[in-house]
Amino acid sequence: MKGSDLLVSALENEGVERIFSVPGEENLDVVESLRRSSINLIVTRHEQAASFMAATQGRLTGRPGVCLATLGPGALNLTTGAAFALLGAMPMVMITGQKGILSRKQGRFQVVDIVATMAPLTKMARQIVSPATIPTTVREAFRLAQQERPGPVHLELPEDIAAKEAPEIPVVKPHPIDIPVADSAALDRAADLILKAERPLVMLGAAASRPRLAGPLSDFVRRVRIRSSTHRWERAPSQAARAFTWAPPPSRNATMCIERLTVPI
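Now predict its structure.
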């Protein structure tokens, strides 16, 4: 068993079904391990597309999407998708290759410090320095990607660590993630403000489309019959709530939109 086999085994343990990628030479061991796994490798035309596909999968499913790229310029092409996922609270795990850290045949050719580059764009950026740490590192990456506030995580796997022989190390079983719950006093204050409001308006942001929120938000809007507004590229929570939801057109002034929506029902 090699380091790449441990990585793929850990990804399967997390329920990963597909990886979006533009693989390179430094990913060859990982690609070969994926070939023998249940994970589907989807090759894209550009690394940026792979990162956006992974981020969107995370947004729609609530589980981290995964993308894979090579070192240097290939890894740098993931940065736009990383920023997109960070700002939009989309769980995603990015895996990039790197030249060997124990020995290098090509010196510093195309070597960029991707871990430092990704640090401000992710919840965690880490280089894997030993096959023995792969199971725990992958588990931590997926945990952080899903914890509030969800976002992207970056793992760098050097080619010599991926190719290094490793003992069979058991994977770490995923565990349920505790969701933060508002204090009951805060909920009572919010309910009191809504009851006293003359023209209440629910403003639904990007998080309204998260799988675990769409249903409860839809039920809330339908039951209290309060007008709600979404960002123009956000969908309404569900068909049941659309009668009370209106998305402002891009050309309309925001103030006019609010005035229109706050007319009493």
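Residues 236-241, 251-265 have pLDDT under 50 and may be disordered.
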